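Consortium newsletter contribution from the modelling node. Members have asked for a concrete example of what our holo predictions look like. Here is one, prepared for the adenosine-5'-diphosphate complex that several groups have been discussing at recent meetings.
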Amino acid sequence: MKVLVINAGSSSLKYQLLDTETQAVLAKGLCERIGIDGRFTYKAPGKETIDAVSIAMPTHAEAIQAVLDALVDPANGVIASMGEIDAVGHRVVHGGETFSTSVKIDDKVMAALEECIPLAPLHNPANITGIKACQAVMGPDVPQVAVFDTAFHQTMPPVAYTYALPYEYYTNDKVRRYGFHGTSHKYVAQRAADMLGKPIESLKIITCHLGNGSSVTAVKNGKSVDTSMGFTPLAGVPMGTRSGDLDAGILEYLMNRHNIGITEMLNILNKKSGVLGVSGVSSDFRDLTKAGSEGNDRATLAVDMFCYSVKKLIGAYAAAMGGVDAVVFTAGVGENSANERMAIASGLEFMGIRMDPDANAVRGKEAIISAIDSKVKVLLIPTNEELMIALDTAALV
Ligand code: ADP
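And here is the predicted structure:
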């Protein structure tokens, strides 16, 4: 089955056309500056690349049209006609408590998606715009599926998702831990089980998605039972620019002292904190490692804080699950940085985690990086959210 995977932002749209039987990416690219001046990028194996050329994209509909035009282009396209696209899979950030699995989109689903907007006011409207654009351009006969970042975590028990606030804020206002990166955590947990040759239903896995945004998840018997992001993706470990968990009392103290409002405060927590805030150097771990090696102590502190925070969660989630069989590293930092993986896993020998430094000297490909006799297996698994979305979409249609 050929599935077009769409990840729509407010002014951008990432796409991939995948063949779900071979799992091959037939073509992929990006529409940027939608609503501004429109830039289009297209890459397909063995074809000419289109690199950020100007195409008018006043709305997402023109962006989708540009994608379809490129896919069916006689010279550089990869399909003969739009009819070859069997379905479209959309990444949707927030499914609230309504969606615990991916769903085929109909009018009722669209209405429920609109209801989730207050929970993700920046992301869900863009995702909805992307869906509507596809419906308008491709017509009603091409099935569309929504795949949610939050869905995998809907199996968390109340003890993990309830905040210790007046309970009415949960019942009336839907304030609870939702968790994000669910598609990624689900994908790498399943791959880990495949690589270990054991059914996922028999495993306790801790998945560490460490990128620009980072989250750690406890996956027990194939189900998410706890995760570090919360009501929003601001919670958990320190990230590229997000603070992660902090004492809420700090907000009032800083807002009073610096005479700043809540919008500015949240901008600081989302955009100016994390390893960028601590180091004053960069949100990119490559820059931090370089600065650290040149003697910048704050850059070293920022990386150390990040690793320490992930390490603590591994301990916490092993306690939550009554043990752990495997730890998985994925996303930009998890896939590429041997030093951070080693710093996180070292010192955990007491719980059966022993790394193999040689096996850990690897980047961006599936590998078991723990020592042969390590009781807990440590794995590097590149995430593939697009493939997961395509497979879910194919399964539903
Ligand atoms: P996003 O959350 O934006 O999807 P990614 O998963 O792509 O992020 O991760 C991006 C981050 O990965 C970068 O900010 C960078 O810190 C980190 N990264 C990428 N390559 C390397 C590398 N070779 N070594 C260390 N960190 C890396």
